[in-house]
Automatic annotation (TrEMBL):
Name of this protein: Methylenetetrahydrofolate reductase
Organism: Pokkaliibacter plantistimulans
Annotated catalysed reactions: (6S)-5-methyl-5,6,7,8-tetrahydrofolate + NAD(+) = (6R)-5,10-methylene-5,6,7,8-tetrahydrofolate + NADH + H(+)
InterPro entries reported for this sequence: FAD-linked_oxidoreductase-like, Mehydrof_redctse-like, MTHF_reductase_bac
EC class: oxidoreductase
EC number annotated for this UniProt entry: 1.5.1.54
Transmembrane annotation, as ranges: none
């Protein structure tokens, strides 16, 4: 069985404190040689004030590992996004995470009249700019806007057929959820690699609220595990590490050899997970 590998995800900082947290995490995590580090967009994509591009360019110079930049359809017009892609390619950023995105302040998604309507269009356009390595999103428990999983997979296939190399999933907690999803993706004739996205539980209460918005189920046993445990308690961190190690071990026994960790710009828990992956298999 092959040794597992992993990638990491960070988000652009908005304050001096979060900037310090990001660079501290990056310096501590880069030595574990992730396959790549991806930099997300802020709310609303690459809107004015979003620093995805700046962070990605600096990280590409300092992290000493490949960097992937997120791009969303809501971030700009077609030409603005294509120019951004050309800038990334010229700056030696050759991996894009292509997403639809959500318009801030709107309950339902409305495509920009001057932009790409959905991620499959963005993927196809990026491939015309250059031979980018492209990741797209997958939703094991369905996207909140999807009417059914069949429709979700139909759209996922469009993204893969447009040139996506990899599908990074929304976070989940039950490994069986991912394994069932992987089977359905394969049955739909989608050839792109399916990578499980894993979320460290840094604050259980905040995580459950976020999971509800993302349509991600939180198993009842997790509620019982964290009952009465505060986020700052060492027990909280130990439980979070236990959850991640269980997910990775279970999925690895089913042939999963690549994992994407949503770091939340935190280094301690993620650092121990990275060290464990590198040494335990």
């Amino acid at each position: 069985m092959s040794k597992p590998n992993f990638s990491l995800e960070v988000f652009p900082p908005k304050t001096a404190a979060t900037t310090l947290s990001l660079w501290k995490a990056s310096q501590e995590l880069a030595p574990f040689k992730p396959e790549f580090i991806s930099v997300t967009c802020g709310a609303g994509g690459n809107a004015p004030g979003d620093t995805t591009k700046e962070v990605a360019l600096v990280m590409a110079q300092q992290a000493h590992c490949p960097v992937a930049a997120h791009m969303t359809c809501v971030s700009g017009s077609r030409e603005e996004l294509l120019q951004l892609a050309r800038d990334y390619w010229q700056s030696n950023i050759r991996h894009i995470v292509a997403l639809r995105g959500d318009m801030p302040g709107q309950e339902r998604y409305t495509p920009r009249a001057d932009g790409f309507a959905y991620a499959d269009e963005l993927v196809a356009a990026l491939k015309e700019v250059a031979d980018f390595d492209i990741s797209v999103a997958g939703y094991p428990e369905g996207h909140p806007d999807s009417s059914s999983m069949d429709k979700e997979l139909e759209y996922l296939k469009k993204k893969a057929d447009a040139g996506a190399n990899r599908i990074i999933t929304q976070f989940f907690f039950d490994p069986e959820v991912f394994l069932r999803y992987r089977d359905r993706v394969a049955a739909a004739g989608i050839k792109a690699e399916v990578v499980p996205g894993l979320l460290p539980v840094l604050n259980f209460k905040k995580m459950t609220a976020f999971a509800a918005r993302c349509q991600t189920s939180v198993p009842e046993f997790l509620h019982k595990m964290f009952e009465g445990v505060e986020a700052e308690d060492i027990d909280h961190r130990l439980l979070a590490m236990n959850i991640l190690s269980h997910q990775i071990t279970r999925l690895h026994t089913e042939g999963v050899n690549f994992f994407h960790l949503y770091t939340l710009n935190e280094s301690m828990l993620t650092r121990h997970v990275c060290r464990w992956i590198r040494s335990a298999f």
